[in-house]
Amino acid sequence: MATAVTAEDDSVNRRELAGFLRSRRERITPAEVGLPAGPRRRIAGLRREEVAVLAGLSPTWYTYLEQGRDIHPSPEVLDSLARVLGLTEDERRYIHKLATGRTAGSQPLQGDVSAEELVNRLVRSSDDMPYPVYGLDHYCDVLAWNRAAAEWYTDFGLLPPDRRNMLRWLFSPDGRCRIGDWENDVADVLARWRALSAPWSGDGKLATLVDDLRRQDEDFGRMWDGHGVRELRSRVRTLHHPELGPRAFRAVTVQGVEFAPCLVVFHMPAQPQDPTF
After folding, report:
1. In terms of DSSP H, where are the helices of 106-158?
2. Sign (positive/negative) of CA torsion 247, 253, 258, 261?
3. Which stretches does DSSP call E strand in 96-234?
4. pLDDT of the residue at 230
5. How far is the C-alpha of 241 from the C-alpha of 163, rounded, in Å?
6. How far are the Cα atoms of 22, 107, 117 from residue 111, in angstroms, in the given order?
């Protein structure tokens, strides 16, 4: 059960952020950011006022931040500091979490390669695997699938591009036949999707998808109106193959920061003693 964040937690996070920023400031030489070192310089790293100027901040305000005082940097300020201090993507997300209690949206780690293309490459590399692998975006549009996914789910390549959506497929006659314990499985999927899509609650495309599914299937409306919420966890899913019969898989959903908000779902054989979730 989650506990509320206390004032003491905030204080600990501020001290941790202060120490982290100081450690990263001290490892950067003036030459690395185009500043002269000068013959009388006593420290190898940057001074606080230099970081502040490079980040477009008040030196006093930045000093307060490194002192762990109760101030609240904006996401833009944190990203500016990450740039000046040469933070990695993981480090950038870390300072956002310390300062605000949540991580910021990911930034590309692979140059100009999009999250969708990274997912496509990852899934395509699994084409020789005997178990299903597929990738989704936060609309549940199916971005890529391997041969096993086409065999055990459906060949999404045969569907019109605007119908290649896992939610639409789950509520189709084919999805109802292929998914074992359909009611519980699909209710679980919707609960996960509600949690995942929360940051985009104002997105018109999401609203249209919900409205379409609600009009097309009363089961969707009933489940969606139940407001179930579930975090990403692995679960056992039984798939019914028209020739091979039923088989139980453990479905594991992976979301890497470099391809968020997209997801990749891997399957592996489930064991008889495995819990359902």
Report:
1. 115-124, 147-152
2. positive
3. 133-136, 142-145
4. 87
5. 21
6. 28, 10, 12
Q: Quick one: pLDDT at residue 256?
A: 84
DSSP annotation of 165 reads B
Single out the residue of 245, 114, 228, 227 nearest to residue 177, CA to CA.
245
pLDDT digits (tens, 9 = 90+) for 177-195: 999 999 999 999 999 998 8
Q: With contact defined as beta carbons under 8 Å apart, do 268 and 128 qualify?
A: no
Residues 6+ apart with CB under 8 A from 54: 33, 46, 84
- The per-residue pLDDT for 237 is 96
Quote the CA–CA distance of 269 and 277 in Å, as a whole number: 14
* Mean pLDDT, residues 249-277 taken together: 84
Q: For residue 56, how far is the Cα from the chain centroid?
A: 30
- E strand spans, the chain: 133-136, 142-145, 235-241, 245-254, 263-269
Kindly tell me if the per-residue pLDDT of 105 is higher than 70: no
Indicate whether 276 pLDDT > 70.
no
